[in-house]
Amino acid sequence: MKLDVIKLDGASVGSVDLDEALFGVEPRADILHRVVRWQRNNAQAGTHKVKTRSEVSYSTKKIYRQKGTGGARHGSRKAPIFRKGGIYKGPTPRSHGHDLQKKVRALGLKMALSAKAATGSLVVIEDINTDGKTKTLANQIKALGWKRALVIDGASVNEEFLKAARNIEGLDVLPTMGANVYDILRRDTLVLTKAGVEALEARLK
């Protein structure tokens, strides 16, 4: 698969051959859904917590005598049936993460890349060298028509570009090892540097 390579100023600088095994896979919604769900569940903090009857603050004294009141027998104001009593079987801190096979995760990433290529939302750029100024980069992004874009660089991200991009709304920047299905799918445009393409091919082969 051939794709034109451009520069940040929009000028064309040739083309690049993209591996069909990475960028020509038929996307499957079920695989993408499984990988995104795995990602989001692993990212969930799971810190929700309620107090049980052993944790609420009340006296342990029996609230009234056992017999002769005409009411039900009770020993503790901490019981779940009372207002401000302990919660029965409420949420406790736990991990929401689950396992997913490496092959499925790799396949999901290939499908996400292929989905962007199939819809014409994939852009390959020569490099992301810039002067580090947000205004300059914002004007270039506007001229290129990238409204919600994810830029994936090589093993490390260009520091000047990262500095200029961090205050631009709708623009995310990741190194190759940070490339993931969720971030790729949630942005309208996927931008890969040539170094990023080479690193992704090396990672996924």
TrEMBL record:
InterPro entries named in the record: Ribosomal_uL4 (IPR002136), Ribosomal_uL4-like (IPR013005), Ribosomal_uL4_dom_sf (IPR023574)
Keyword Ribosomal protein in annotation: yes
Gene Ontology MF terms: rRNA binding; structural constituent of ribosome
Pfam family, one: Ribosomal_L4
Entry keywords, A to Z: Ribonucleoprotein, Ribosomal protein, RNA-binding, rRNA-binding
GO terms under biological process: translation
Cellular component annotations (GO), alphabetically ordered: ribonucleoprotein complex; ribosome
SUPFAM superfamilies for this protein: Ribosomal protein L4
Gene3D superfamilies reported in the protein's UniProt record: 3.40.1370.10
TM region positions: none
Quaternary assembly: Part of the 50S ribosomal subunit.
Function in brief: Forms part of the polypeptide exit tunnel.
Family: Belongs to the universal ribosomal protein uL4 family.
NCBIfam families named in the record: rplD_bact
UniProt protein name: Large ribosomal subunit protein uL4
Organism: Pelagimonas varians
